[in-house]
Amino acid sequence: MLETREKEPALDQCQDLELSKENPKTEKRPEFKAPSTAAIGFLYTTFIVLLVAICWQPDPSIFISSLPGVEVIASHKFLVAGGQSSQLHWDEYGLMLDIPSDALPCGFVAEVVIRVSVSGPYVYPDLKTWKPASAVYWISSSKEFVNPILLGIWHNVKGSVNSSSIKVLTAEDTPQNMSYIFNEFLGDFTVKGSYVYFKLTGFSGKKVVTSLDVRNFQGSLFYKMSDAGNKWKYSLVIYNSHTKGVTRSLFDGTQYEDWILDIKFDVKFEENSKILELIITPDPPLENWIIRGRINPLSYHKDALQSQGHIVSNMRFDIHWNGSSDLLTDDYLNFPLKGAEYPLSITANPSRIDHKTSANISFTKKKRGIKLDIKDLNDIDLILKSSSFDNSKWSDLGLKLGLFQTRLNTIKSDNSQDAKACLGETLGKWLNRVDEVDKNGGATWEALMDALEKIEQKPVAEKIKDYID
């Protein structure tokens, strides 16, 4: 959500009114006091500020005429008046600005332009050691600020982070030989949660990099139906973690506009693993299914994922039902994901897709007693959400499902205490049957209902009961 707030200055902050002394007047003439030069100047400046604020309209050409070669995915501009404090919270794209009232002299007005980018002719120092951990934020102003402003940039590093494993890079907005050269920002900065904060007076490009081994990424499974019967196209896309706005912008206008999103999930590399490879031989094997990869091997390299600025489709495959009988709704195609700590496999079930529509998925009725796996995560998430499950109880739920407290502590640390994200990872671990899940009933609907009742979430358990009966 984009939020801009301003505070009105006190009158004496920008004004020094001194009325000139008047000569004595006769009793027969009305007394007149001429306004001082300072008062006239203040009134004139106030009028100009109000006129600019009312009449100013964004000029889209500003975004086009600068930063040649840079791919801008989002932009925002606003006015800053001297003597007024302003705050900008652009959570959707991971940026915060705190502008104090003395950043500009009283009576001055500056136009601030912010552009967000993930790709361009960028040159970073020591890419082998320092990996990209944020988008690039270009910030410019029509006037230099006389006092620093506070800037916060979102980063994608999970877990415990300190300033020794984080750097801020900066680049001038004028390219050198058609490239933007980034160098280390030498000012002080602090890391708090998912944001890096620092002060600045000059304006240019800013980016966060890290020396840590980034293992957490995002994944999305897409599909589309072929015009021919019993044929489907699938694409598993792995990409760098970004804010929701940046991720959405990366997918806008891509080849996936006419595809259907099956499921989104977190992806975590195994320790010391450098490559993810999708094995499209079903495990266990199933008869009458033909699966072919578009490009082999179906793999992503971690180093390439960290630095990529576009959505890259490295795991595209086709599924064809070659049997003489009707499709079996229980034919789940389970494909191992080699090199991943989570998820261990990707599941596709083309038979559950309703061919009468190209935009909806129909699910077969769930039965009591069946074992659940990662393919059911989206269904579980939808039920909990529609039942108004209290996400803050994710840790209590995890304990009742059989997860160890140490694992829950790691989940909490990895997700910056984001309850929704913690719940998703907890359910994923439960579906993969880690720790003592099997001793607590395994990954079944009944075990989930029992755990929900134990943490006083009986209405949610009743919702699940209605769903599976």
Automatic annotation (TrEMBL):
Q: Which UniProt keywords apply?
A: Membrane, Transmembrane, Transmembrane helix
GO process annotations (BP): signal transduction
Q: Which residues cross the membrane?
A: 38-56
Taking every annotated instance into account, which residue ranges of this chain make up the domain Death?
393-468
Record CDD domains: Death (cd01670)
Q: Which domain of life is it from?
A: Eukaryota
From the UniProt entry, list the residue stretches annotated as the region Disordered. 1-31
Listed Basic and acidic residues bias regions: 1-10, 18-31
Q: What is this protein called?
A: Death domain-containing protein
